[in-house]
From TrEMBL, chains A, B:
Residues 12-66 form the HTH lacI-type domain. GO terms for molecular function: DNA binding. SUPFAM superfamilies: lambda repressor-like DNA-binding domains, Periplasmic binding protein-like I. Keywords: DNA-binding, Transcription, Transcription regulation. PANTHER family: HTH-TYPE TRANSCRIPTIONAL REGULATOR GALS, LACI-RELATED TRANSCRIPTIONAL REPRESSOR. It comes from the Bacteria. Pfam families: LacI (PF00356), Peripla_BP_3 (PF13377). SMART domains: HTH_LACI. This is LacI family DNA-binding transcriptional regulator.
Amino acid sequence: MRYADVAKAERIRIYDVARVAGVSVATASKALNDTGRMTEATRTRVKQTATALGFRPNAMARALTRQRSFTIGLLTNDTYGRFTLPVMAGINEALVDQGVSVFLCGIEDDAALGKIHVDAMLDKQVDGIIATGKRIDRRLPVDLSDLPVPVVYAFTEGPADAVTLVSDDRQGAREATEHLLAHGRRRLVHVTGPDSFASVQNRAEAFRASAGQDAKVLYGAWSEAWGHEAVAKLWAQLNGPDGIFCGNDQIARGVVDALRERGIDVPAEVSVVGFDNWEIVSAATRPPLTTIDMNLKELGREAGRLILDLAEGKPVEPGIRTLPCKLVLRQSCGSDRVANRAEEEVLQEV
Amino acid sequence: MRYADVAKAERIRIYDVARVAGVSVATASKALNDTGRMTEATRTRVKQTATALGFRPNAMARALTRQRSFTIGLLTNDTYGRFTLPVMAGINEALVDQGVSVFLCGIEDDAALGKIHVDAMLDKQVDGIIATGKRIDRRLPVDLSDLPVPVVYAFTEGPADAVTLVSDDRQGAREATEHLLAHGRRRLVHVTGPDSFASVQNRAEAFRASAGQDAKVLYGAWSEAWGHEAVAKLWAQLNGPDGIFCGNDQIARGVVDALRERGIDVPAEVSVVGFDNWEIVSAATRPPLTTIDMNLKELGREAGRLILDLAEGKPVEPGIRTLPCKLVLRQSCGSDRVANRAEEEVLQEV
């Protein structure tokens, strides 16, 4: 159907189709749905009338009979959208071809606002809800465990028996560390965020598993300022590190800036790897950051596929699904040549 | 209704209420809607049954009779979400209390994807569509001019007879320039983005109107790298500027970094003002950026209020509505004391 037809239709209803075709509304409905008993001539006349009028079958009316609304609710407390936007893009990609639309509900950390949004979504008979947030070890401020619709948790904590998707912090941190080792870096340090985050602990453990159990880990804020401060601490001692794995790209940018201001060349003297691949930060760093991408768009796609399966009543195993991160090569670690060789080595190790 | 009741309800339908109350579906519906003829005893029995079963009146069913779905579609091609996220937050704020939910449809610059999303939204009988994007002088790659539902354009170009909201680039640029002048800066330069952008032209014109018609404007990319390059150009001459108004925060960050690396103190020797108030950039700059905020959240609120009015059939004047920007004070322009005095002067001038 073209837009012109839609416009002409001005919300043509089945009543109009029935009137013009000279049948009852019930007959018109049956004709269009290929159900009921009538002559083929009548069925054809109704269908032709519907086409001529530009009748758009009403999704809500269909939903009422099929018990599906072809809508999904996405709840998030990530106001920056840093994590939610790629998740959302993936969800949309998985659902748009199925005719499913997504309600985006930003609830910040406001339980009352969360309840209003959940009520509105239930009221509109969503087929399911995807909950997402800004960290994997915190729940949204609203209880979704007893809703009459299925729920998938993506990049936020859910109940033990829920369907939950998270990115693989350990594998991502291992890849970053192995990449530094593959560049011949041996004095490795991990500069990361607050140790109250599960992701910080998981990444630190994976870093030490590859770099050595006595390798240094410095905990601080998720900020550029902390990157500067960490470099000041590290270079207050005689032997600074030759490889720094940072807990996020903002810390990495601070580290790279602080090193340049000390006259220390990145990557010739020190290699740096970030985490997140937040392009506004990682691509603008001088040199641009080699970093870990959590593949949040793919995580969103998988969340979309799972909520569709659940909405259609297909069996889905509960539990936590861990999706792999990927290393994104830029210049903060070494030359492309070295980087590519390192990639091959990492691949061979897998 | 509490969540527990919803859960118990497991999508209780009006059929269930009718069956338990011992009436027809039609009678149950009329009883709950306070229409039709029946004894008060019957009406009360139906209502009590509905409450006892935890019946949730179906928004879709109500929409079918009221011709309202209480949903709004938001179309955007701003994949970064830099502009769309605050607009979206404002829209949600304006609509959530009215029980209206928002479909977010990211269409990038893909006309086919745009059409799929618009079809899906019309199919779900949205009450209206808000179109938004990443620049005010470009249309989305999908024609919304002949749809059977109202459309509001917010931070993207619409047809001449449409309802359109934009931020006031000229007033924002004027405030930035006046602020530099209020700090006693007299050798002003504007370092901005590509001159193919209407916003770039509007800001440059407003800058020259305040700073003088022969004040220098340098056009380049929307990037930190361009900020570095511009400083190299400006300081290749004998007398560098003492005040720089930048077209966005990324350029401003590049300018501030480049000045620091030349040993030029910001703000003691040169004052810098950005544009956008994109916090990840403006707050992390050393020193943090004084900048212009386009008030996109308020623009979103206004778009939400307008689309509601249109959906309810209230009269709304077509045309372009220009919303004011505001100056956000940080440290790149001067001390708080000076900044506050400047603010007062600016206020007195208005």
